[in-house]
Structure formats: structure tokens, C-alpha cells
Amino acid sequence: MSDLLDFSANINPDGPPPAVLSTLRASLDDISTLTDYPDLQHTELKHAIARYTGVSTQNIAVANGFVPLLEAALRTLPIPNCLLPVPAFIEYRNALTRAQIEISPYPLSTKFCFNYDPRAMVIGQHDAILLANPQNPSGVCHDGRTIRDLIARAADRNMYVLLDEAFIDYVPEHSLTTAADQFPNLIVFRSVTKFHGIPGLRVAYAVSNPTLSSSLEENIPPWPITTLASRAVSAALDDQGYAVRSRAINIERRNLLQHELEILGLAIYPSSANFVLFQLPSEINPIVFWQRMIVDHHIVLRACANYETLPAGHFRVAVRTTEENKKLVAAVSRSLLPY
User: Fold this and answer.
1) What is the DSSP letter of 135?
2) CA–CA dist 84, 116 (Å, integer)
3) Distance between CA atoms of 200 and 249, rounded to whole angstroms?
4) Helical spans, DSSP H, in the chain
5) Is 66 exposed, middle or buried (0-12, 13-18, 19+ CB in 10 A)?
6) Is a pLDDT exceeding 80 seen at residue 339?
7) How many CB atoms lie within 10 A of CB 308?
8) Are 117 and 258 part of one and the same domain?
9) Which domain, by its residues, includes 257?
């Protein structure tokens, strides 16, 4: 099924920065890349992350993906009970369950565009809050001031905040990454590979105060990042022009895609990420619609039926190239028609 057009994965459709490929080629020409162990301290990678985010290398812990970092945090912190706003990325609940942490679901309302309420979210017996900004699957992004307010209120109640900013590169002005030193209860998780189009390299990082960051690293197995991945990601992060262009073109493509999907009568949520969540009209069977998109149009969507508390008929689509987005809109239009 290589002819399928995949709108289910939220990866930069324009591919990685050119320096990534040239760095990988140069690294493979150096035999020591393969014969030497990777840098146990991740010095080059941490300095690249520090330049990119504006934090100190002492605030940074790295691993081969978000889940290993989250699991390290759950091993490090005393968290018997965690508040989990839902719908949310499925791996949040999976990681909390594996860590045998009691989960307090916090349902978010589609009517109010999945709005976070800092006052309400700190009321209860939970010891931590695990949330995302921008959210997944909605793409809704809260103003940085709202998230800061939530973190401050949680700190007053001795609650930890585990903040997933996997898609914040599209709206960096709302990031709380640089606030890690101000809030000892905060860990910010960041992804490198989605925004930079290199998910095969598996690199993510967490930012927190130096003491907490050091404890996180003690709970991560040694050598989680290969030399190839470290060098390639460092090259990607240093290409600021790529980041600026990616943000600008994503806004243009996303706005057009949202507009065209709304014209078709779909309910759309205000995304700030590189994907869009929509809901079908109630008279459309979501299973039949999803199957028609694959069989008739060779397009794969992310069906959201397994997202907690999300009403039926929701689908998430990545923002791909302009031409690919046009194919998606045309296919959705035809799939909404009765047989």
C-alpha cells in the first residue's frame, strides 16, 4: 500500500533541513562514528538545544523520544495521583498506568474548544498535572500566560506540572521552556523530530531546574542517543532559517485547509499546530467515511474514536503540502456524498 497518502502522522511535509543530510553523509565517511561509543554526556547535542531554546545545558535531559523521558520523570518524582486532561495523547495514560499512578481524568469540552481552567485544575487530591500545549488531538494552543498561571497555582499546592510542548515549535512565543528555573515543580518536554521532519532519529529533551534535570538523567539508561542522531539533530536545530520558514508556510497551508474543510460543513477547531481536528456531520457514519477515504482515495486519516471523552465522528489530519491538502479536501468532499 505504498501509494497511500498518510495524513495521520504530524510530520513536517517538507522534510529535514538540508544540513541534516549533509551531516549524516559526512559522519558516515568518518569510521569513528561507528567504532566509538556515543558521548555519554551528549555535550554537542545539549549545546545545540541550549542555543535553540535559550536555556542552560544544565537544564536539559535528553532521550530517544518523549515516552522514555516521561517514564524517567514518573520514576523520579513522588506522584501517587496525576490529573490528566482528556482527550489527550494515548501514551500519557499508558505511561501513567505502567508506573502504577492513579489517574484523575479532567474532561475538556469541545463546546469551549478544550479550554484549560487553571483554577479548577489545581483543585483535588492529585500530586501532578500532565498536559500538552498545543494540545493533541485538537491543536488548540493556550496563551503562555494561562499556562504560567496554572504552573504557579500548582506550585502553591506542591503539585508538579509535566508539560508536553511537542508542537510548540510552531508557536514558540507561548513556550514555558525558559521558565524552568523559576518553577521547581515544572518539567517541559520538547520534541525535535516532528517539526524538523526527522522522526526516524528519535530524539527528545526535557527542560527543568538543574537539580531535577540531574535526577531525570539518573533514571534514563546510558547512551540513549546515537552519534548519528546527535549530530544530525544538532545541525537541524542550528538552522534557524528553516524554523522561520516552516512556521510561516505551515500557517498559510493550515489556514487554507481549515477554511476549505469548513466550507464542506465540518466542525473545525482552532489549531496552532501542524494538524487539524474536525468532526463529521452527525448523519455521516465515521467508519464508512474512514474506509471510503482509504479504499476509494488512498488517503489515511487519524480516526479519533479511541481518544478519551471525544464525541464520535472526529478525525485528525496533518497539514501536508498545498497540493496534497487539495487532494485531501477533494477526497473528503466526495466521501461525504451518499453512495
Assistant:
1) -
2) 11
3) 23
4) 18-29, 32-35, 43-53, 66-76, 90-98, 118-121, 144-156, 210-218, 227-237, 240-263, 286-295, 322-335
5) buried
6) no
7) 15
8) no
9) 5-14+241-335
| Grid cell locating 70 | 516521561
| CB-CB contact of 232 with 45 (8 Å) | no
Burial (CB count within 10 angstroms: exposed 0-12, middle 13-18, buried 19+), residue 2? exposed
Quick one: CA torsion of 205, 191, 106, 251, rounded to 10 degrees? 150
| 57 & 190 share domain | yes
Work out the angle at residue 87's Cα, subtended by the Cα atoms of residues 325 and 49, and round it to the nearest 5 degrees: 70
Q: How many CB atoms lie within 10 A of CB 211?
A: 10
Q: Are 68 and 220 in contact (CB under 8 A)?
A: yes
The number of domains in the chain is: 2
Question: Among 210, 238, 266, which residue terminates a domain?
Answer: 238
- Convert the pLDDT of each residue in 127-170 to its tens digit: 999 999 999 999 999 999 999 999 999 999 999 999 999 999 99
Q: pTM value?
A: 0.96
Q: How far is 240 from 248, CA to CA, in rounded Å?
A: 13
Which grid coordinates are listed for 66? 518523549
- Please compute Rg for the chain using Cα positions: 20
